[in-house]
């Protein structure tokens, strides 16, 4: 078979999380509930930020974009999995599988870069508060968000194009619930050196570089906070970063374990379990992490719910 000829495989089989009918029914309702919570929770965050003028600040501008990404992110994988559980048809066409890979890689990369932008925002707010309004301007915020979307789109396009050059020789079962980049590479029967190299280089720029930026930002933040004389001042400074730091640990702890560990150490069960954490659990927890630890967000959500209930009564 010639290099790049993938005509022998017209579709892939997503084996999912279980082949047992009883477990599949339970998993369907479980993931349906988590998906609804994710979409509703992140949508409430976006609406609350929009209607509360007090939250029209750079930090919440980044947070609203992060919530939007999380909604799109989970929508690339979970609906297909739910449909597969209902229809019992786990096949996905080759072209649709690559499309899912493209959007998944794009959105997960955008998530990563946005978290890096939020860390930079917190760094300037705590380490250079007097110059914050001059450094983090609306134009800078829009620029950082635009770069997050465009840079990661190009990165995803490179990975997806490189997948298209691979040969798939009959074996088409993916031990996953979505078309994951690393899972597809393992199925290829042609040389995957270039694909692996792209993950560690181009992919590294999208995942590792923001992570390094976050680490550097928080090192400076911790040093600056320790210099604050009052305990209440230290507590207030840490409270503005606690939610973001929690999300960063959840997100990067799983991503790096899957995509930047040696391929020989991967197992289907391990990769699937870890993928559930960063594709389903983390986006679902983000709204709770940011709202429960933030008094301004709590107030905005109360305002939103009050308006909605008042409108319902009026109608």
What is the oligomeric state here?
single chain
- Low-confidence runs: 1-7, 310-315
How would a textbook summarize the main sheet?
Answer: 3 strands, mixed
Shape summary: globular
- State the separation between the terminal residues, measured CA to CA: 66 Å
**Continuous helix count:** 12
Mean pLDDT: 83
Strand content: under 5%
Q: State Rg.
A: 21 Å
Secondary-structure-derived class: mainly alpha
The number of strands is 3
Topology:
Elements: E1 11-14, H1 21-51, H2 58-75, H3 78-87, E2 91-93, H4 94-127, H5 132-135, H6 138-164, E3 173-174, H7 181-187, H8 193-200, H9 202-226, H10 231-259, H11 268-292, H12 295-314
Parallel strand pairs: 1-3
Antiparallel strand pairs: 1-2
Short description:
Helices cover 76% and strands 3% of the residues.
